[in-house]
Specification:
The chain has 144 residues and is α+β, with helices and mostly antiparallel strands. Helices cover 41% and strands 23% of the residues.
Length: 144
């Protein structure tokens, strides 16, 4: 599944970009380069949409690019005399499936076998088995 949203970019004087997604409650991100800012916008949109899907919420509809306005955003943010170099708007397309594979939060049930004495001791210590297994797996996956 792919989603497309219009996004507003502001090139700042500090050689960075501020990014806003009006259809997603004006969520914002930034990047030091245009490439980074566009990637951050894609990542941000994917995160919001995945959260909404996992919560069973409706995905916000995308506006036409002509419907989003810099003036509306600036009024909403109550910014006067924003000192930027340039601004533009474009669509960002996001392949939700690829992000879901990488970052999805959907839980998967696994059955594991551990020695009884370890189980007893861990329960006495009130150790969260799921959290401990997740942490151990992440450490193993991302071990240098």
């Amino acid at each position: 599944m792919k989603v497309i949203y219009p996004v507003l970019f502001y090139e700042e004087k500090e050689n960075a970009y501020s990014v806003f997604v009006p259809d997603l409650e004006n969520i914002t991100t930034c990047g030091e380069t245009l490439e980074e800012a566009m990637y951050m916008a894609e990542d941000l949109i994917a995160g919001v949409i995945l959260d909404k899907m996992e919560e069973g919420c409706k995905i916000p509809r995308s506006s036409k690019i002509e419907e989003v306005s810099f003036d509306t955003l600036e009024n909403y943010l109550e910014i006067e005399n924003w000192d930027y170099v340039s601004k533009f708007k474009t669509y960002i397309i996001v392949d939700i499936n690829s992000f879901a594979e990488k970052w999805g939060k959907e839980l998967v049930k696994k059955t594991v076998n551990i020695p009884k004495w370890v189980n007893t001791k861990a329960e006495e210590m009130k150790i969260n088995f799921s959290k401990t297994l997740e942490e151990a797996l992440l450490e193993k996956i991302y071990k240098d």
